[in-house]
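Sample intake sheet
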Amino acid sequence: LQGIIQAYKGGITLQGNTTNLGRWDFTGSFFFSISAVTTIGYGNLSPSTVAGRIFCILFALFGIPLNLVLLNEIGQLMLLGVQRCAHRLEEVFHWQKKASFLVKTCALVTGLLLFLLLPPLLFSDKEGWSYEEGFYYSFVTLSTIGFGDYVIGMNPDRTYPGWYKNVISLWILFGMAWLALVIKFCINFLE
């Protein structure tokens, strides 16, 4: 049993050997950093040494608040862009409420496409998941639930491009900011 546990910690699972996936190369480390500071915590990768765990704690203590500030700033920039578009439409077409509603609707649809509806197509291609599995992964990730039942870049039978985890890490940051805005609008509407 101890041999199995050691093998698992080394990257060998019953599904296959995942040590060739470069878990702690730059892209894997960047993805781990993003999942730590966003508090997603898939559970598939973690520090195994005392020094690594201490560093992770310190990194998270500073990284989580900084990430919240970053997400807030990204969200505010997105909101500012939406407000500027609405203002331009009001000026050009002399619309008042129509412009605001139209731009907010466009921003919602664009966000849905970029962060929830199109990424599952990429996951279907790169991971071999169904569209529904990709959509599930997208929502579970962006909402920071992060069960860990689906994690990108972990199939030892697939070859992943070098840009893949980095692009997904950026998608997570911007997608979380967008989803936070949507949740904020829902809260304001419900209140």
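Comment: The first strand starts at residue 12 and ends at 13. The chain has one domain: 1-190.
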